[in-house]
Specification:
With 342 residues, this protein is of the alpha/beta class. It has helices at residues 9-18, 25-35, 48-57, 130-144, 163-173, 194-201, 218-224, 227-230, 233-247, 265-275, 300-312, 333-341; strands at 2-3, 58-59, 64-70, 77-82, 88-96, 99-104, 107-109, 124-127, 150-153, 186-190, 208-212, 251-257, 280-286, 317-319. The strands form 3 sheets. The chain has a 10-stranded mixed beta sheet, sandwiched between helices. It is globular, with a radius of gyration of 21 Å. The structure holds S-adenosyl-L-homocysteine and iron/sulfur cluster. Iron/sulfur cluster binds at residues 110, 112-114, 117, 119-120, 156-158, 191.
C-alpha cells in the first residue's frame, strides 16, 4: 500500500483520477494530511464512500509519542516517537526569540559511523520516508500546539544518504498548500558526502547547507569520521565551493570542540586558512559526551581561545548555545537508551 503522506499534491491528483474521483479532492485531502489527522474518518468534507476507498488504498502513518522530556530551564521538548513498524526516532522542539525551531531525524540509525555520535552506534536500520520525516513536524505541532517556523535536519541520520526521500520531504514541507515553511528557514546538515552535495546544488533550493567539518586536517578528521576516507577535506571543500557558486547560499560549517583532539591552536590556524575567502560561518559546538566514546568536551577557555583565533583571522564563529541543558542527551541518545531498555 502507498503511504499517502509521501505524495505531492500532483501525485495525489493523479491518484484521484485513477480512482475515478475529481482531481480537486487532492487539495482537500492534502490539507487534512498536513494538519495531522489520525484517520481518514476525520476528513469530514469527503463522502463516507471516498473515505473508505482511501483507507483501502493508502496507509496513513501516525507516530506515537513514546517519551516526551521537557526542559525546566528553557522549555525545549525532546520527543521519542514510535513509527508504524515499531522503530523509534527522535525529534526536538526549541524556542527561540524568532520562533519555534525543530530538529528532525531522517533515518532510523545511521551508517556513517562517526566516533563521537550516539545515533550511528548501532548502524543504519532503515531510511525514513518523506511522509515520516514530515510526520515528526506535524505531530510536534499537534502535541505542542505551537507553529513551527524553522527546521534543521540534524537529528539521527545522514540526510544525503537518504537523498530522494529527503528531497521530497523538502518539497512537501515548503508546499504552499501544506505547512508552507520557506526553504530559507530550513537547514540540512551533512557529514560531507561530496558528490551528493554537488547533486543537491543542482536542485537550486534556497535551504542552508550545514557541513559537519569538525577538523581542518585529514588525519584528525579521518580518525573521527570514516566518511573522510571517501571524501577528503579538499574534495569536500571543492563541493562546498560548487554549492555556493551554484546556489548563492552561504554555508554553515559545524565544528565540534573535543578536548585535545580538535581544539588545538594549530587547528584554529589551519581552519582559518581553509575557510579564507569562502562565504560562510563557523558554529563551534561543545561536544556532548557519549558513553562509548573516549572524546571529552573542550574546556571553556579552549573554546574561547579557538573562537578568538578564528576571529583574529577574519573568520566569523559563534559558540552554539546549548538548549535544554537538563535534558541534554547527545543526538541519538534517547533512542539508544530505548533500544538498550528493550
Ligand atoms: N548526519 C548529519 C546530520 C545529523 S548529526 C551530520 O552528521 O551532519 C547533527 C550534528 O550533530 C552534526 O554536526 C554532528 O556532527 C553533531 N554531533 C553528533 N554527535 C555529537 C556529539 N556527541 N557532540 C556534539 N555534536 C555531535
Ligand atoms: Fe551519522 Fe551524523 Fe551521527 Fe555521523 S554525526 S554518525 S553522519 S548522524
Amino acid at each position: 500500500m502507498i503511504e499517502i503522506k509521501s505524495l505531492t499534491i500532483q501525485e495525489l491528483k493523479q491518484e484521484m483520477t485513477e480512482m475515478g474521483e475529481k482531481p480537486f479532492r487532492a487539495g482537500q485531502i492534502f490539507k487534512w494530511l498536513h494538519e495531522g489527522v489520525e484517520s481518514f474518518e476525520e476528513m469530514s468534507n469527503l463522502s463516507k464512500a471516498l473515505r473508505a476507498k482511501l483507507a483501502e488504498r493508502f496507509v496513513l502513518t501516525v507516530p506515537q509519542v513514546v517519551r516526551r522530556q521537557v526542559s525546566q530551564v528553557d522549555g525545549t521538548v525532546k520527543y521519542l516517537w514510535r513509527m508504524r513498524d515499531g522503530d523509534c526516532v527522535e525529534s526536538v522542539l526549541m524556542h527561540y526569540e524568532h520562533g519555534v525551531s525543530v530538529c528532525v531525524s531522517t533515518q532510523v540509525g545511521c551508517r556513517m559511523g562517526c566516533k563521537f555520535c550516539a545515533s550511528g552506534q548501532n548502524g543504519l536500520k532503515r531510511h525514513l520516508s518523506a511522509g515520516e520525516i514530515l510526520d515528526e513536524i506535524l505531530f510536534m505541532q499537534k502535541d505542542s500546539g505551537e507553529k513551527v517556523s524553522n527546521i534543521v535536519l540534524m537529528g539521527t541520520g545522514e540526510p544525503l544518504d537518504n537523498y530522494d526521500n529527503v528531497l521530497k520531504f523538502l518539497h512537501l514541507v515548503s508546499c504552499p498548500e501544506g505547512i508552507n515553511i520557506g526553504q530559507r528557514h530550513i537547514s540540512l546538515s551533512t557529514s560531507g558526502i561530496a558528490d551528493k552535495i554537488e547533486r543537491l546544488a543542482g536542485e537550486k533550493l534556497q535551504i542552508t547547507l550545514s557541513v559537519s567539518l569538525h577538523a581542518p586536517d585529514d588525519e584528525t578528521r579521518s580518525s573521527i569520521m570514516p566518511v573522510n576516507d571517501a571524501y577528503s577535506i579538499e574534495r569536500l571543500m571543492q563541493a562546498c565551493r560548487y554549492y555556493f557558486d551554484t546556489t548563492g547560499r552561504r554555508i554553515s560549517y559545524e565544528y565540534m570542540m573535543a578536548d585535545g583532539k580538535t581544539d588545538r591552536p594549530w587547528q584554529a590556524e589551519k581552519l582559518a586558512k581553509l575557510l579564507r575567502g569562502r562565504p560562510g560561518h563557523v558554529n563551534l559546538i561543545p561536544l556532548n559526551e557519549v558513553e562509548e566514546s573516549p572524546l571529552r568536551p573542550s574546556r571553556p577557555e579552549a573554546v574561547r581561545r579557538f573562537q578568538q583565533a578564528l576571529e583574529k583571522r577574519g573568520i566569523t564563529a559563534t559558540v552554539r548555545r546549548r538548549l535544554g541543558p537538563d535534558i541534554d542527551a547527545a543526538c541519538g541518545q534517547l533512542r539508544r537508551r530505548e533500544l538498550q531498555r528493550q
